Amino acid sequence: MDRSSAGISGQYARSDNDYNRPGGHATSSRRGRYRHSTVRQWDDTPRTNPGRNKFYRSADTRHSQHLQRRSVNPAQDFNALIKPEIMDDLVRKSDRFGHRYDGRNHGLYANSIKQYTSAAKRPLNRAEQSQLIGLLENFTITRRWDWRSLTTTLHSLTSAGVFTLHKPMDERVQLTQAALLSTLLDAIIFKCNQKPEASDISAQGIANQLWAMAKLVDNGQEQTPGLKESVATLLPRIKAQKANFTPQENVNLLWAMAKLLDNGHEQTPEFKEAMAALLPCVNAQKGQFNAQGIPNLLWAMAKLVDNGQEPTPGLNEAVVALLPLVNAQKDQFNAQGIANLLWATAKLGELVELNVATSTFESLVYRMRKNLQFSQEEISMSLWGVMVCCARLALDSNANKNNVLEKHMDDLLTRLENTSPDNKEDRSIMIMAASWLGRTCPVVRHYHKAISKTQADFRYQLQSCIPSLRIEEEKSLNSLPPVDLLLPDHNMVIEVQGPSHYVGGDFNTRNGSTLLKIALLQKAGFEVIEIPANQLLNNDLMKPYIDQIKTRIGIPPQEHGSVSFNRGWADAAYVTGEEHLEEQTNPAKKKKRRRKRTASNRLPPFMTQVNFAAQ
To answer: What digits encode the pLDDT tens for the residues 88-144?
Structure first.
C-alpha cells in the first residue's frame, strides 16, 4: 500500500494564535483537521542591544497601549480603529516625509489592530475584516519602508486575521487583501535583495516574517509566486543569522517551516540548509525551552518527517534532547500541549526508542488525570497517540505491557464517543480503539481505496506463480483501514509498504500509523507480512518473497535465495529467512513453530467472525 492512509490521515495539527498570552489557546482557521500547534508570537520588548529593536513613539503608541490595558468593549474599541481620520493622518505623514518615510506610523497602526484582537482573544470576524479592509484601501506600502516596519505590518495584520480568507468572500475585500499583501511581500523581497545588504535586517524580523508567511498559507492563502519568492529570500538568511535566534525564535522558525512543508512547499536546497542550521540549535538551547516551546518543537519535528524530511542526525539529536524535558515539565503542560506531544511522539514511531516513548506517555497520562479540559480534537489526538504506544508495546515481545495506558485508552474512547464526532478521522480513530479494546463501535467508516503500481505488479506475479491462491485486494477487515492483499484461506495479510509508511520515507523506520495498523491486524488474529516497496522493483526481486509466501502457506518454494519478513521486533507471526532455512533442515522445529503460530493467530472472542466483504 504505497500511500499514507494506514491508521491516521496525518493531518493532526492546527496552528492557533496565542496572542502573547502564556499558554494561550485562541480560535483559529479550521482549514484542515487537527492542525494543532500553538506558537508564541512576536514580543515587541527590546533586547539587550537597544539598536536592534528601537521603539517608535507617537500618539498611536498610546492608543495601542490603551486598547491593551483596559477592559474590552469590542464595538467601541473597533470603531476607534476604523475612523477615517486615522488613515488621513497616515497619508499626510507619508506625504510629508516623502522618500524619507520609513513606514513606522503604518507599522504602529497595524500593531494597534493586533492589540485589539489580542485583548479580544480572537482574530477579526468577517464583518470587522470587511469594515477594516475599506479603510486599508489607502494603506500604501512602499519599498522605502525599513525592515522593522515591514515586519511589524506583516506580522500584525496576519496575526489579527486581516488576510484570513472567509467564505464566502466579498470580491472587493479579496481584491484589497491581495493587493495589500502583494505590495507588502514585494517590499520585503526588494529589501532582502538590496546590494549592499541592508543593515537593519534582524534575526527577530526573519523569524516573525517567516512565521507570518507560514500562517498565511495555513489560513488558506494561495502560495503565489510572490509568497514563494518571499520565503525563498528569507531561507538563506536563517543560516547566516543562526547564532542570533533566541529559543522562542527557533521554535517559531521550525514551526513555520513545518507548516510550509505541510502546505506543499518544496524541500529546496535552501530549505534543507536552513533546517540543517536550525536543528543543532535545539540541542544547544534545550534547557531554555518552556512548556509551550517543547510541544511545538516536537510537533514540528513530527510534521517535518511526516512530509518527507529525512531523519538526519541533527533531527534525531533534537528529538533525543527534547523528550527528557517532557517528564521534567509534565506538570506545566496544558491540554493542547499534551495532545501535541502525544501525537508527535507517536507519529515519530520507531525513531523514538520504545522505553523513552513509554516513559513520555506515562508522564503525559499522569498529567491528563488533573482534570484538564480537552477539546474534541485534543481527545482524538491523544487517543490516537496512546493507541500507537500500546501498539508498539504489543509488537515487542520483550516489552512489559502497560495496563494503565489501555485503561486510559478506554476512558478517552468514551469521552470521544460522547462528543459525537462527524468527521472521518475521528470516526476512524474510534473504530480502531473499539477494535483494540473489544468494544462495539457505533460508527462505520468507508475508506478511500487506492492500489499502487508496485502492489498491483506484486499481486500479478504472486497470482501467476500460485494460480490456485485466492487473493483479495483492498479489503477492510473489522472496519479497519483496508489491507493491500488478503489471503483469506490462510488468514494472512500482505502489506506492500511504500515510503509513506516510514519516517522520512527511509524504508527502515516505521511511523506510528504503520505500527498501529500492523498491531491491530495481529490483534485481530491475522498473520501480517510487510514488504518494503523498494524491494519489489522488478520480478527478480519479487521471486524470493513469493517463495517465502509459498513456504508459509505450505507450497515448496523454488531456490531463489532467502529473504526476511522480520524487523527485529515481531512475534511468532513473523519468520526470518534464517528461521525458514532452519525449519527446512529441522522438521521438529518447524512443527513446534507452526503450533505456536496457530495459537498466536487465534481470533479473540469478540472477533471470531471476520467479515471479508468490502466496506
So the answer is: 999 999 999 988 999 999 999 999 999 999 999 999 999 999 999 999 999 999 999
Estimate to the nearest angstrom the gap between the alpha carbon of 418 and the chain centroid.
Answer: 26
pLDDT per residue over 520-546, tens digit each?
A: 999 999 999 999 999 999 999 999 999
Radius of gyration of the chain (CA): 28
Number of residues assigned to the chain: 615
38: phi then psi, degrees, rounded to nearest 5: -105, 135
Question: Is the Cβ–Cβ distance between 305 and 503 less than 8 Å?
Answer: yes
Helix 104-120 to helix 84-97 angle (10° resolution) is 150
Whole-number Cα distances in Å, 120 to 21, 22, 73, 274, 285: 12, 15, 9, 35, 33
Give per-residue pLDDT as tens, 338-380: 999 999 999 999 999 999 999 999 999 888 877 789 999 999 9
Which residues are within 8 A (CB) of 288 and not within 5 positions of it... i.e. 6 or more apart? Answer: 247
Q: Residue 503 contacts by C-beta under 8 Å, 6 or more apart in sequence? A: 305, 311, 348, 349, 350, 351, 509, 510, 511
The burial class, CB within 10 Å (0-12 / 13-18 / 19+), for 608 is exposed
Q: For the residues 261-278, what does the mean pLDDT come to?
A: 94
| pTM metric for this prediction | 0.80
40: how many CB neighbours lie within 10 A of its CB?
Answer: 23
Do residues 492 and 466 touch, judged by C-beta distance below 8 A?
no
Name 325's Cβ contacts closer than 8 Å, sequence gap at least 6. 286, 289, 294
